[in-house]
Write a structure and sequence with these properties.
The chain is α/β, with parallel strands linked by helices. The protein is built from 15 helices and 14 strands. Bound molecules: adenosine-5'-diphosphate. Adenosine-5'-diphosphate binds next to helix 10 and helix 12.
Length: 396
């Protein structure tokens, strides 16, 4: 069975076609600048060269059609007909409090995605457009929505409620939802298997450290806490996001700089984090290079990033009264041995002991804790597309 995985942004569409017999990626690609002049599709069939089509894509319907054409192309294609695609799995950002699992799309599901536009204004509209474009191009094929917020729905009320007047939860659903849920669920599940833990009781912390970064705590595969909140802004210091700040900072800067709350939120989302702290870059590699060259602000930013990871991991160990496994994933988590080491060296109180040689690794599932470490610590690559394809397969 072949499953097409689609991740739509407002002007982009990422896709992978996965053969579920062996979970091999047959082809993947990206449509950029949809609805903007100069759109292009980059298609990468497995084992063949990259193929770029520069063609106007006024909307996502046209983009989906071009993706299907590329997949069926005589020279660069990987399937004979679009009928070879059994189902489509869509990454969808927000399901509010309605869905705590993936679901086959019907009119009700589309209504919920639409009702959640205010909670995910940048993503949900694009996600719905992607679903409708696939319904149009492949009538009758099942579309499955895999929600980024689903994993966080099992958080108990003590973890997900903000200490603000309850009426705002009732009126608008203001609560902590958490994001990167597909990755946290996938990595925590893989970590349990890799460490040979009991899937019913295992206490796992996943550190998803990429340009966007979040940490989750789960017991028996159910999320009990996670660091992102109503939006992905809460929690860790990220590439461009501030993570936790005193909300009074917003009022102070708005008043003194004469800017609106919306403008301030844009600063906290897009111009803060390690980019804002250093003025250098949102890319951790650039900031690490600057630190090596003696840049003080770069050193402070990296220290602060790791310090916040350490604080969250500590908080989640306390919240769960222990931890069996800690998994590092995403760009920084999979590639940056120094960050992993520094975090682990601050967890000796919990019985974490890192094997420095094993930690000297990149991008592949590896146990990096010493054999006598009380906690199993590992590098576990995330694979959100495969996770979406598996969820889709399970439902169709
Ligand atoms: P996202 O999916 O949120 O865009 P990724 O998970 O792809 O992010 O992670 C991107 C980040 O990973 C970048 O900031 C990049 O600098 C960082 N990264 C990649 N390789 C390394 C490395 N060797 N050392 C430190 N950071 C790295």
């Amino acid at each position: 069975m072949k499953i097409l995985v689609i991740n739509c942004g407002s002007s982009s569409l990422k896709y992978q076609l996965i053969d579920m017999e062996n979970e091999n990626v047959l082809a993947k690609g990206l449509c950029e600048r949809i609805g903007i002049a100069g759109s292009k599709l980059t298609h990468k069939p497995a084992g063949k060269g990259e193929f770029v089509i520069e063609k106007e894509m006024p909307d996502h319907k046209v983009a989906v059609q071009l993706v299907l054409d590329a997949l069926q192309d005589a020279e660069h294609g990987v399937i004979a007909s679009k009928d070879d695609i059994s189902a489509i799995g869509h990454r969808v950002l927000h399901a509010g409090t309605v869905y705590s699992d993936s679901i086959v799309v019907n009119e009700d599901v589309k209504r919920v995605i639409r009702e959640c536009f205010p909670l995910g204004p940048l993503h949900n509209p694009a996600n719905l457009i992607g679903i409708e474009a696939c319904e149009h191009a492949m009538p009758g094929k099942p579309n499955v929505a895999v929600f980024d917020t689903a994993f966080g729905m099992s958080m108990p009320e003590k973890a997900c409620m903000y200490a603000i007047p309850h009426e705002y939860y009732e009126k608008y659903g203001i609560r902590r939802y958490g994001f990167h849920g597909t990755s946290h669920k996938f990595v925590s599940g893989e970590a349990i298997k890799f460490a040979g833990l009991d899937p019913e009781t295992a206490k796992v912390i996943v550190c998803h450290l990429g340009n966007g970064a979040s940490i989750s705590a789960s017991i028996g595969g159910k999320c009990v806490d996670t660091s992102m909140g109503l939006t992905p802004l809460e929690g860790l210091i990220m590439g461009t996001r501030s993570g936790d700040v005193d909300p009074a900072v917003v009022q102070f800067i708005c008043n003194h700089e004469n800017i609106s709350v919306d403008e301030m939120l844009d600063i906290l989302n897009k111009k803060s984090g390690i980019l804002g702290m250093t003025g250098i870059s949102s890319d951790f590699r650039d900031v690490e290079k600057a630190k090596e060259e003696g840049n003080h602000l770069a050193e402070v930013a990296l220290d602060a990033f790791r310090y916040r990871v350490i604080k969250y991991v500590g908080a989640y160990i306390a919240a769960m009264n222990g931890v069996d496994a800690i998994a590092f994933t995403a760009g920084v988590g999979e590639n940056d041995a120094d960050t992993r080491k520094e975090v682990c060296d601050s967890l000796t109180y919990a019985g974490v002991k890192i094997d420095e040689e094993a930690n000297n690794v990149r991008g592949k599932a590896t146990m990096i804790s010493a054999p006598d470490s009380k906690v199993k610590v590992m590098l576990m690559p995330t694979n959100e597309e495969l996770a979406i394809a598996r969820e889709t397969l399970a439902l169709v």
